[in-house]
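Hey, can you fold this one?
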Amino acid sequence: MKTCQNCSTEIQDHFNFCPNCGTDLGKPVICKKCSYLNEPNSKYCQECGTALFEKYKVSEPKSKKIEEIKIEIPSPPLTGITIEFPYSSAQSFVFAVDEAKKFDTFEQFGNDKKAIYRINVIEDDLYKTKELLEHLKGWRKKTVYHNGQKVMWDSMFSFQYCYEHKLASFKPEYYCIGFENEYDFNLWGCMRVEMPFVEHANWFTFGKWLNNKGDWIFDNERIKHELAKNIHYCKFCPAINLDLIQDILTAIPDIVNPSKNKNWKFKETFSNDGTNILTSTIKEYGFERTVNYNGVSPNGKMFIKDIAENIRKKLPDFIKV
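Sure. Predicted structure:
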Protein backbone atom coordinates (compact mmCIF):
# COMPACT_ATOMS: atom_id res chain seq x y z
CA MET A 1 0.00 0.00 0.00
CA LYS A 2 1.07 3.54 -0.74
CA THR A 3 -0.33 6.97 0.04
CA CYS A 4 -1.49 9.69 -2.32
CA GLN A 5 0.66 12.79 -1.81
CA ASN A 6 -2.30 15.04 -2.53
CA CYS A 7 -5.26 13.58 -0.62
CA SER A 8 -3.48 11.04 1.63
CA THR A 9 -5.69 8.19 0.42
CA GLU A 10 -4.15 4.73 0.78
CA ILE A 11 -4.08 2.90 -2.56
CA GLN A 12 -2.62 -0.27 -4.12
CA ASP A 13 1.10 -0.28 -4.94
CA HIS A 14 0.48 -0.93 -8.69
CA PHE A 15 -1.72 2.19 -9.13
CA ASN A 16 -0.07 5.01 -11.11
CA PHE A 17 -2.83 7.50 -10.45
CA CYS A 18 -4.88 8.12 -7.35
CA PRO A 19 -8.42 6.77 -7.86
CA ASN A 20 -9.69 9.40 -5.41
CA CYS A 21 -8.23 12.65 -6.78
CA GLY A 22 -6.40 11.62 -9.97
CA THR A 23 -2.94 12.73 -8.83
CA ASP A 24 0.03 11.31 -10.78
CA LEU A 25 1.72 9.07 -8.21
CA GLY A 26 4.97 8.98 -10.17
CA LYS A 27 5.76 12.63 -9.56
CA PRO A 28 8.24 13.67 -6.86
CA VAL A 29 6.69 14.61 -3.50
CA ILE A 30 7.30 18.27 -2.66
CA CYS A 31 7.98 19.06 1.01
CA LYS A 32 5.63 21.81 2.16
CA LYS A 33 8.22 23.06 4.63
CA CYS A 34 11.48 23.25 2.67
CA SER A 35 10.19 22.61 -0.95
CA TYR A 36 12.60 19.69 -1.44
CA LEU A 37 11.67 17.21 -4.23
CA ASN A 38 11.42 13.80 -2.59
CA GLU A 39 11.18 10.39 -4.24
CA PRO A 40 7.58 9.28 -5.06
CA ASN A 41 5.79 7.66 -2.13
CA SER A 42 8.27 9.11 0.41
CA LYS A 43 6.73 9.44 3.84
CA TYR A 44 9.21 11.93 5.30
CA CYS A 45 11.26 14.69 3.66
CA GLN A 46 14.77 13.54 2.86
CA GLU A 47 16.06 17.08 3.50
CA CYS A 48 14.40 18.26 6.74
CA GLY A 49 12.59 15.17 8.06
CA THR A 50 9.15 16.76 7.98
CA ALA A 51 6.21 14.35 7.59
CA LEU A 52 4.93 14.65 4.01
CA PHE A 53 1.43 13.35 4.73
CA GLU A 54 -1.09 14.23 7.44
CA LYS A 55 -1.31 10.70 8.78
CA TYR A 56 2.38 10.74 9.71
CA LYS A 57 2.37 14.08 11.49
CA VAL A 58 2.84 13.89 15.24
CA SER A 59 -0.03 15.82 16.71
CA GLU A 60 0.95 18.05 19.63
CA PRO A 61 -1.23 17.60 22.69
CA LYS A 62 -3.66 20.40 23.02
CA SER A 63 -2.98 22.34 26.19
CA LYS A 64 -5.95 22.60 28.42
CA LYS A 65 -6.39 26.18 29.36
CA ILE A 66 -7.58 26.45 32.90
CA GLU A 67 -9.52 29.61 33.28
CA GLU A 68 -8.66 31.25 36.53
CA ILE A 69 -11.65 32.35 38.49
CA LYS A 70 -11.12 35.92 39.56
CA ILE A 71 -12.34 36.57 43.07
CA GLU A 72 -13.98 39.90 43.68
CA ILE A 73 -12.56 41.12 47.00
CA PRO A 74 -14.16 44.32 48.31
CA SER A 75 -12.02 47.08 49.77
CA PRO A 76 -11.39 46.87 53.52
CA PRO A 77 -13.65 48.89 55.85
CA LEU A 78 -12.78 52.57 56.21
CA THR A 79 -12.88 52.37 60.01
CA GLY A 80 -11.15 50.09 62.46
CA ILE A 81 -8.35 47.57 62.01
CA THR A 82 -8.67 44.88 59.35
CA ILE A 83 -6.62 41.67 59.43
CA GLU A 84 -6.50 39.68 56.20
CA PHE A 85 -4.79 36.38 55.34
CA PRO A 86 -4.92 33.79 52.51
CA TYR A 87 -4.76 30.02 52.45
CA SER A 88 -1.52 28.65 53.88
CA SER A 89 0.14 25.25 54.06
CA ALA A 90 1.25 26.05 57.61
CA GLN A 91 0.04 23.69 60.31
CA SER A 92 -1.55 26.60 62.15
CA PHE A 93 -3.78 27.50 59.17
CA VAL A 94 -6.83 25.56 60.38
CA PHE A 95 -6.49 27.07 63.85
CA ALA A 96 -6.17 30.56 62.38
CA VAL A 97 -9.39 30.15 60.40
CA ASP A 98 -11.23 28.72 63.41
CA GLU A 99 -10.06 31.65 65.54
CA ALA A 100 -11.06 34.19 62.88
CA LYS A 101 -14.55 32.69 62.70
CA LYS A 102 -15.11 33.66 66.33
CA PHE A 103 -15.37 37.31 65.28
CA ASP A 104 -18.73 38.67 64.14
CA THR A 105 -16.97 40.51 61.31
CA PHE A 106 -15.44 37.34 59.82
CA GLU A 107 -15.60 37.18 56.01
CA GLN A 108 -14.38 34.63 53.47
CA PHE A 109 -13.84 35.40 49.79
CA GLY A 110 -13.38 32.44 47.43
CA ASN A 111 -12.85 28.81 48.32
CA ASP A 112 -10.11 26.27 48.92
CA LYS A 113 -6.59 27.46 48.10
CA LYS A 114 -7.88 30.65 46.48
CA ALA A 115 -9.72 31.78 49.61
CA ILE A 116 -9.04 35.05 51.44
CA TYR A 117 -10.07 35.45 55.09
CA ARG A 118 -10.74 38.76 56.82
CA ILE A 119 -11.85 40.21 60.17
CA ASN A 120 -12.31 43.79 61.36
CA VAL A 121 -12.09 45.14 64.93
CA ILE A 122 -12.19 48.57 66.53
CA GLU A 123 -8.94 49.88 68.01
CA ASP A 124 -10.08 49.30 71.61
CA ASP A 125 -10.67 45.60 70.83
CA LEU A 126 -7.32 44.97 69.16
CA TYR A 127 -6.13 42.94 72.14
CA LYS A 128 -8.89 40.41 71.38
CA THR A 129 -6.96 39.32 68.28
CA LYS A 130 -4.15 37.92 70.46
CA GLU A 131 -4.90 34.25 69.73
CA LEU A 132 -5.32 34.86 66.00
CA LEU A 133 -2.02 36.73 65.85
CA GLU A 134 -0.35 33.81 67.59
CA HIS A 135 -1.50 31.44 64.82
CA LEU A 136 -0.35 33.88 62.12
CA LYS A 137 3.20 34.13 63.46
CA GLY A 138 5.82 33.53 60.78
CA TRP A 139 3.38 33.87 57.89
CA ARG A 140 4.67 35.97 55.00
CA LYS A 141 1.33 36.57 53.31
CA LYS A 142 -0.74 38.49 55.81
CA THR A 143 -2.00 42.04 55.62
CA VAL A 144 -3.32 44.63 58.04
CA TYR A 145 -5.27 47.82 57.28
CA HIS A 146 -5.95 50.81 59.51
CA ASN A 147 -9.03 52.80 58.55
CA GLY A 148 -8.88 51.28 55.08
CA GLN A 149 -5.19 52.04 54.52
CA LYS A 150 -2.58 49.28 54.31
CA VAL A 151 0.09 49.64 57.03
CA MET A 152 3.20 47.77 58.12
CA TRP A 153 2.42 44.72 60.25
CA ASP A 154 5.02 45.61 62.91
CA SER A 155 3.72 49.17 63.25
CA MET A 156 0.39 47.70 64.32
CA PHE A 157 1.40 44.74 66.48
CA SER A 158 4.89 45.36 67.84
CA PHE A 159 3.35 46.20 71.23
CA GLN A 160 2.22 42.59 71.68
CA TYR A 161 5.35 41.29 73.45
CA CYS A 162 5.40 44.15 75.96
CA TYR A 163 1.65 44.00 76.57
CA GLU A 164 1.82 40.28 77.38
CA HIS A 165 4.49 41.03 79.98
CA LYS A 166 2.25 43.70 81.49
CA LEU A 167 -0.65 41.25 81.86
CA ALA A 168 1.65 38.69 83.50
CA SER A 169 3.34 41.16 85.85
CA PHE A 170 2.90 41.41 89.65
CA LYS A 171 0.96 44.67 89.41
CA PRO A 172 -0.23 45.08 85.81
CA GLU A 173 -1.78 48.51 86.51
CA TYR A 174 1.67 49.88 87.44
CA TYR A 175 3.82 47.90 85.01
CA CYS A 176 3.91 50.50 82.22
CA ILE A 177 5.34 53.24 84.44
CA GLY A 178 8.31 51.08 85.44
CA PHE A 179 7.13 49.59 88.73
CA GLU A 180 9.27 46.49 88.28
CA ASN A 181 12.38 48.35 87.13
CA GLU A 182 13.29 51.70 88.66
CA TYR A 183 15.47 52.61 85.68
CA ASP A 184 12.30 52.58 83.53
CA PHE A 185 10.30 54.79 85.91
CA ASN A 186 8.22 57.28 83.93
CA LEU A 187 5.02 59.30 84.09
CA TRP A 188 4.18 58.85 80.42
CA GLY A 189 2.51 55.53 81.19
CA CYS A 190 4.69 53.64 78.71
CA MET A 191 8.22 52.27 79.05
CA ARG A 192 8.49 51.93 75.27
CA VAL A 193 8.70 55.72 75.06
CA GLU A 194 12.26 55.21 76.37
CA MET A 195 12.24 58.59 78.12
CA PRO A 196 12.35 57.68 81.85
CA PHE A 197 12.14 60.25 84.64
CA VAL A 198 15.49 59.29 86.17
CA GLU A 199 18.78 61.11 86.53
CA HIS A 200 20.60 59.33 83.69
CA ALA A 201 17.87 60.01 81.08
CA ASN A 202 19.33 61.84 78.11
CA TRP A 203 16.15 63.75 77.23
CA PHE A 204 16.69 66.07 80.21
CA THR A 205 19.48 67.63 78.15
CA PHE A 206 16.97 68.72 75.48
CA GLY A 207 17.07 72.46 76.07
CA LYS A 208 19.52 75.25 76.80
CA TRP A 209 20.81 77.54 79.55
CA LEU A 210 19.25 80.97 79.51
CA ASN A 211 22.02 82.49 81.63
CA ASN A 212 24.86 81.63 83.99
CA LYS A 213 22.50 81.75 86.99
CA GLY A 214 21.17 78.25 86.30
CA ASP A 215 17.91 78.98 84.46
CA TRP A 216 17.26 76.06 82.11
CA ILE A 217 14.55 76.06 79.42
CA PHE A 218 13.34 72.77 77.94
CA ASP A 219 13.14 72.33 74.15
CA ASN A 220 9.51 71.21 74.01
CA GLU A 221 9.51 70.68 70.24
CA ARG A 222 12.45 68.31 70.43
CA ILE A 223 10.83 66.43 73.33
CA LYS A 224 7.60 66.13 71.30
CA HIS A 225 9.52 64.79 68.32
CA GLU A 226 11.32 62.20 70.46
CA LEU A 227 8.02 61.11 72.01
CA ALA A 228 6.31 60.74 68.62
CA LYS A 229 9.24 58.78 67.19
CA ASN A 230 9.51 56.36 70.10
CA ILE A 231 5.80 55.79 70.49
CA HIS A 232 5.19 55.09 66.79
CA TYR A 233 5.50 51.31 67.09
CA CYS A 234 3.31 50.99 70.18
CA LYS A 235 0.62 53.59 69.54
CA PHE A 236 -2.02 50.86 69.14
CA CYS A 237 -1.22 49.22 72.48
CA PRO A 238 -4.45 48.87 74.53
CA ALA A 239 -2.60 50.14 77.61
CA ILE A 240 -1.30 53.39 76.17
CA ASN A 241 -2.95 56.68 77.09
CA LEU A 242 -2.12 59.37 74.56
CA ASP A 243 -4.07 61.99 76.51
CA LEU A 244 -1.95 61.34 79.60
CA ILE A 245 1.24 61.70 77.56
CA GLN A 246 0.05 65.06 76.27
CA ASP A 247 -0.89 66.17 79.80
CA ILE A 248 2.51 65.20 81.21
CA LEU A 249 4.27 66.99 78.38
CA THR A 250 2.28 70.14 79.10
CA ALA A 251 2.89 69.85 82.86
CA ILE A 252 6.70 69.77 82.62
CA PRO A 253 7.91 73.25 83.68
CA ASP A 254 9.15 75.38 80.81
CA ILE A 255 11.98 76.83 82.90
CA VAL A 256 13.76 75.08 85.78
CA ASN A 257 16.45 76.40 88.10
CA PRO A 258 17.73 73.75 90.54
CA SER A 259 19.21 76.52 92.71
CA LYS A 260 15.65 77.71 93.39
CA ASN A 261 13.61 74.52 93.01
CA LYS A 262 14.90 71.60 95.09
CA ASN A 263 12.69 69.18 93.16
CA TRP A 264 15.31 69.37 90.39
CA LYS A 265 19.08 69.19 90.30
CA PHE A 266 21.86 70.04 87.86
CA LYS A 267 22.87 67.23 85.49
CA GLU A 268 26.64 66.91 85.54
CA THR A 269 28.65 65.91 82.50
CA PHE A 270 32.34 65.01 82.24
CA SER A 271 32.69 66.33 78.71
CA ASN A 272 32.96 69.95 77.74
CA ASP A 273 32.80 70.68 74.04
CA GLY A 274 31.75 74.25 74.72
CA THR A 275 28.19 73.64 73.53
CA ASN A 276 25.28 74.15 75.92
CA ILE A 277 27.49 73.82 79.01
CA LEU A 278 27.09 75.65 82.30
CA THR A 279 30.34 75.78 84.28
CA SER A 280 30.43 76.19 88.02
CA THR A 281 32.99 75.91 90.82
CA ILE A 282 31.95 73.95 93.88
CA LYS A 283 33.66 73.20 97.19
CA GLU A 284 33.75 69.52 98.05
CA TYR A 285 35.61 67.80 100.89
CA GLY A 286 37.54 71.00 101.51
CA PHE A 287 38.62 71.32 97.88
CA GLU A 288 37.32 73.36 95.00
CA ARG A 289 36.63 71.80 91.65
CA THR A 290 35.08 72.90 88.38
CA VAL A 291 31.97 71.03 87.20
CA ASN A 292 30.10 71.14 83.90
CA TYR A 293 26.33 70.86 83.60
CA ASN A 294 24.55 70.05 80.34
CA GLY A 295 20.99 69.98 81.65
CA VAL A 296 18.83 69.24 84.65
CA SER A 297 17.33 66.06 86.09
CA PRO A 298 14.74 65.07 88.70
CA ASN A 299 15.87 65.18 92.33
CA GLY A 300 14.48 61.82 93.39
CA LYS A 301 10.71 61.83 92.94
CA MET A 302 10.11 65.25 94.40
CA PHE A 303 9.41 66.68 90.95
CA ILE A 304 6.21 64.58 90.75
CA LYS A 305 4.60 67.06 93.11
CA ASP A 306 5.10 69.86 90.60
CA ILE A 307 3.69 67.84 87.71
CA ALA A 308 0.75 66.45 89.72
CA GLU A 309 -0.28 69.99 90.64
CA ASN A 310 0.00 71.16 87.04
CA ILE A 311 -2.17 68.43 85.51
CA ARG A 312 -4.51 68.34 88.54
CA LYS A 313 -4.78 64.59 88.28
CA LYS A 314 -4.41 61.93 90.91
CA LEU A 315 -1.32 59.86 90.29
CA PRO A 316 -0.94 56.28 91.59
CA ASP A 317 -0.25 56.11 95.32
CA PHE A 318 3.08 54.34 95.04
CA ILE A 319 4.66 57.20 93.06
CA LYS A 320 3.36 59.99 95.26
CA VAL A 321 5.84 62.02 97.22
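The chain has a mean pLDDT of 85. Let me know if you want another pass with a different chain boundary.
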